[in-house]
Amino acid sequence: xxxxxxxxxxxxxxxxxxxxxxxxxxxxxxxxxxxxxxxxxxxxxxxxxxxxxxxxxxxxxxxxxxxxxxxxxxxxxxxxxxxxxxxxxxxxxxxxxxxxxxxxxxxxxxxxxxxxxxxxxxxxxxxxxxxxxxxxxxxxxxxxxxxxxxxxxxxxxxxxxxxxxxxxxxxxxxxxxxxxxxxxxxxxxxxxxxxxxxxxxxxxxxxxxxxxxxxxxxxxxxxxxxxxxxxxxxxxxxxxxxxxxxxxxxxxxxxxxxxxxxxxxxxxxxxxxxxxxxxxxxxxxxxxxxxxxxxxxxxxx
Length: 301
What we know:
Blueprint: H1 2-20, E1 24-27, E2 32-37, E3 43-47, E4 56-62, E5 65-73, E6 79-82, E7 85-90, E8 93-97, E9 103-108, E10 119-124, E11 130-135, H2 157-160, E12 167-172, E13 177-181, E14 191-197, E15 204-209, E16 215-218, E17 223-227, E18 233-239, E19 242-247, E20 252-257, E21 262-267, E22 277-279, E23 284-289, E24 294-299
Antiparallel strand pairs: 1-24, 2-3, 3-4, 4-5, 6-7, 7-8, 8-9, 10-11, 11-12, 12-13, 14-15, 15-16, 16-17, 18-19, 19-20, 20-21, 22-23, 23-24
């Protein structure tokens, strides 16, 4: 009897391992960029579509069924769910969307203290009343125009001439804008992805610098590099002892172990791995492939 129980236990463990190892990919439309869980625990995906004024928006996924949730945006990117709203950044506008799909402007260019050129990622603050939004500044100068999705080499002449305009703003759900992370530091010139660590009253934003691949935190006084070398850094999220990072131009997703300082490629099958959602409950990253038009459910634990 004991032998049978042991064998049954081994079989169950093996089946659990095989289930964990499964990956699922779902077609969601034209140019998905960012994803989060929102109303009713469903997935909401920003859709750039054809980059024509007004054709951008958000799709909702109910099980495996993909439906249009709202339109009226231009080129929506990062998305977060906070305070009963979806909030997304759209280059020079931050949108707020209610549960019925009604889209309103939360903040636009005139509301920011400095010139706005390329608002990108969004992360919910732990105060549950505001979001962090990265101002990446235009990405074009980072790329070699003669090679597809290829960043200039670090240390090159082109690198030396790149601007340092990227920064991070904090935007409340009533539209108040303040500067959260200043521009000008050489370790963070083009912040793309942003997340938050620390306690509610002591939270610290962490950014992925798209050009260098630096993962950088800012404590309100100084910058600190937590990891390096993940160029094209898009999404940035923290797991238990690790940092997960996607690369848009390289089509990769990495895991960086903070103790061993070792970087592991979890997947390199994407064309453009964009702003993923870390689904802690289901132990997976949900990764949009912008050019591929898909979401991939990638097990990570």
